[in-house]
Amino acid sequence: MSNTNLKSIIESVLFISHKALSLNEIKRATGGEKQEIKEILNKLTKEYRQENKGMIIIENDNKYQMATNPKNAKVVKGFLKKQVSDDMTPASLETLSIVAYRGPIKKQELEKIRGVNCSIIIRNLLMKGLIEEKNEDEEIYDISLEFMRRVGLSKRSELPEFEKLNKETPLKEFVNEDDL
Q1: 89: nearest Cα among 118, 68, 61
Q2: Based on the number of CB atoms within 10 Å of its own CB, is 137 exposed (0-12), middle (13-18) or buried (19 or more)?
Q3: Of 18, 125, 129, 163, which has the highest C-beta tally within 10 A?
Q4: CA-CA distance, 101 to 92, in Å (whole number)?
Q5: pTM higher than 0.70, yes or no?
Q6: What one-character DSSP code corresponds to residue 144?
Q7: Distance CA 141, CA 103 (A)
Q8: Which domain holds residue 13?
Q9: How many domains does the chain have?
């Protein structure tokens, strides 16, 4: 594989990834050699920082991720807020709200609150990066950092009426106890 082709592939993988990738993850995805990948990542990082691009490549703890240029944060934040609410069904928004206020929450508890199977909605929210699975064996879900970033929160307690609706408040105050 040519160096130019590998550079293009690395750039594409970083672009589509919803999380930071280690060198080993990039190596597995691209088939390149670690040293060559490291050199290309260094070049890409410099290229994106030297030019006035909409994207940058960030490195933290030997993990790499493509991100929007911080200079564009205000516009991107406004766009994403609108995107999150416009692109979701009422059922998805309801499920996401429950996870946000009551999470981490077991799938079974979420389904008791909603009264329906939530498998497809959970899968879609996972694919959008708005929630994450905390424990696969017990199917426990919570909001992701991506959700917090998209809605402009620095901590969960900044959610509207959080004190009233958070998981510390017994559910019986909101729903019929027989439904639980």
Answers
A1: 118
A2: exposed
A3: 125
A4: 14
A5: no
A6: -
A7: 7
A8: 3-68
A9: 2
132 and 165 share one domain: yes
Most confident region among 47-56, 70-79, 138-147 by mean pLDDT: 138-147
* Strand order across the beta sheet in which 63-68 lies: 21-22, 63-68, 55-60
Q: Are 77 and 152 in contact (CB under 8 A)?
A: yes
Q: Sort 178 into a burial class: Cβ within 10 Å, 0-12 / 13-18 / 19+.
A: exposed
CATH (domain of 94): 1.10.10.10
Q: What is the pLDDT of residues 30-69, one digit of tens each?
A: 999 999 999 999 999 999 988 788 899 999 888 999 888 8
82 lies in the same domain as 64: no
Q: What is the pLDDT of residue 86?
A: 61
Q: In whole angstroms, how large is the CA radius of gyration of the chain?
A: 20
Same domain, 40 and 126: no
Does residue 81 share a domain with residue 23?
Answer: no
The Cα–Cα gap between 167 and 154 comes to 18
Q: Which of 5, 59, 60, 57 is nearest to 32 (CA)?
A: 5
Token reading at 66: 């493509």
Amino acid at the residue 46: K
